[in-house]
């Protein structure tokens, strides 16, 4: 396993992290969850990511149980808050009340005294940015959180948060967790350059485009049984990567990977990790076998020639000047 600093912080995370969206507490049984977490840890993975909203807390509980036998100081446990957890008007968003209360409940579900990284799951336009930043700083000073970050925030909001925190002597956010893969390269335009200028690293999610980049979905063919495209609760997240000529381009990508002697999923992950500013790619494996396939990505180097061929298949987003 390889490790990278997360933004300008001193925290080092594994190049691949184990995510839990649409998997833990949902489609992965408890026994397989524990085997997968142990297998990831044995392979050197130290980053384990979840969120309170994933299956309404079930993912956090599943992860908390699975890491219970592992040395806590060797783990980087990350969770998030923002989305509604009930019908209560204050049980959502990034107001101080919800941030503090959400963390308290997450700690109970994760069965831990602190989280290494607490992330604002989305930007909240209804709450003053100063209130959110101060709330996160308070949690760090209290010792319940070691670092804080954001998820899927626009570049300008990330830059504003960093500037505000520095001006007030508060702990700055060190991470952003955006959607990023070969089929969705939008963060390259603004988020990546502004984040790099602000010292914020990326923990990218859906690096395999919900499995589309593994080549399991073929043009004109029915999705394989048991895949996310056949799951009523997950299909909408997969379909966004299957429109237009996406599957035709993925078929050419699979052929390119084969010509290089590589598995397409591993190459797709390696391509994400080759992007400057990306600290880790979060994989949503549903079995130990899938996880082991994903782990091979850390040994792949994407050189200039290979990157050029990937860019032909999946054109990059135009950069924005910082």
Explain the overall architecture.
The chain is 37% helix and 13% strand. With 322 residues, it is α/β, with parallel strands linked by helices. It has one domain (3-312): TIM Barrel (Alpha-Beta Barrel). The strands form 3 sheets. A 4-stranded parallel sheet has the order 3-10-9-8. A 4-stranded parallel sheet has the order 4-5-6-7. Helix 1 crosses helix 2 (58-66) and helix 4 (129-142) packs across helix 5. The protein starts with a strand and ends in a 9-residue tail after the last helix.
Stretches with pLDDT under 50, minimum 5 residues = none
CATH topology: TIM Barrel
Helical run tally: 11
Sketch the major β-sheet.
4 strands, parallel
* First-last Cα distance: 32 Å
Gyration radius, rounded: 19 Å
Structural class: alpha/beta
CATH class: Alpha Beta
**CATH architecture label:** Alpha-Beta Barrel
Total domain count: 1
The CATH homologous superfamily corresponds to: NADP-dependent oxidoreductase domain
Shape: globular
Helix content: 25-40%
Strand order of the largest sheet: 3-10-9-8
Overall residue-averaged pLDDT value: 95
Give, in order, the helices and strands: EEEHEHEHEHEHEHEHHHEHH
- Write down how many β-strands occur, each being a DSSP E stretch of 2 or more residues: 10
